[in-house]
């Protein structure tokens, strides 16, 4: 039986690589004991702000066997999104993950292809693919599977390629060979904590989501709080500061996923271009872009807030 576990695990990892995933790690599905008190503390501190979805499915969030019936293994997958080029300097800034097509669709298709491959090669396997939206603690599972460690900015970090990648999971009812966590390599570095424009990293490994620039510019429905004026560092959609300053991201390499290729306009737009963008242009240029999430009205709100008084 063990030889089968090993064989199937190798098969899955080889196919994941062929599909373009950066890496693949496997963990035994079960209750995330260490994460439970952390999540409870985080929610009790109201670090989720208006992201009430974080309060839902508490039990399922911590235990995939409640989410996928009969599940035995969590297959964690990383997909690189580090762009080959960045925006021009005189512009309102957009998080690098949003340069190309919406990642949810891109990754889900790849994960489903992997599931279909598993079924074709191994047999009657039941599983579900998860990308970001579901109550799955993707960073915790990726760390448990040895794909990296959770850094002080609460992102998954790896020595080889830093942190500019998406995380997805495939939860299956198949016994596999399990990987082990890696060691933490943050050491005494506090670059991310020191650089955060809004002091959202309130302690090493603890981020107050309700103070994060990504939260203000994407999740927050209300007006942006006045005390954040001049603190958003020209970010109009998301924020990469804590990743940009991380020494491990010196090892980031450009992705090879055509669908993540930057919209040319996005890279060349000046602040003036963004201020004058029309609904028609927005709809045409940013079809299937993560920017659709805030709609043009949300971007305009952010831009107006960023303009000097």
From TrEMBL:
Co-factor requirement: cob(II)alamin; [4Fe-4S] cluster
Keywords recorded for this protein, A-Z: 4Fe-4S, Cobalamin, Cobalt, Cytoplasm, Iron, Iron-sulfur, Metal-binding, Oxidoreductase, Queuosine biosynthesis, tRNA processing
InterPro entries: 4Fe4S_Fe-S-bd, 4Fe4S_Fe_S_CS, QueG, QueG_DUF1730
One of the GO biological process terms: tRNA queuosine(34) biosynthetic process
Binding site for [4Fe-4S] cluster 2: 196, 212, 239, 242
Entry's Gene Ontology cellular component terms: cytoplasm
4Fe-4S ferredoxin-type domain: residues covered: 174-206
Record: residues binding [4Fe-4S] cluster 1: 186, 189, 192, 246
Main subcellular location: cytoplasm
The protein's enzyme class: oxidoreductase
Active site as annotated: 132 (proton donor)
SUPFAM superfamilies per UniProt: alpha-helical ferredoxin
PROSITE patterns: 4FE4S_FER_1, 4FE4S_FER_2
Pfam annotation, one family: QueG_DUF1730
EC id: 1.17.99.6
Co-factor remark: Binds 2 [4Fe-4S] clusters per monomer.
Pathway as given in its UniProt record: tRNA modification; tRNA-queuosine biosynthesis
GO molecular function, one term: cobalamin binding
Catalytic activity: epoxyqueuosine(34) in tRNA + AH2 = queuosine(34) in tRNA + A + H2O
HAMAP family named among the record's database cross-references: QueG
Family listed: Belongs to the QueG family.
UniProt subunit comment: Monomer.
Biological function: Catalyzes the conversion of epoxyqueuosine (oQ) to queuosine (Q), which is a hypermodified base found in the wobble positions of tRNA(Asp), tRNA(Asn), tRNA(His) and tRNA(Tyr).
Protein name: Epoxyqueuosine reductase
Species: Flavobacterium silvisoli
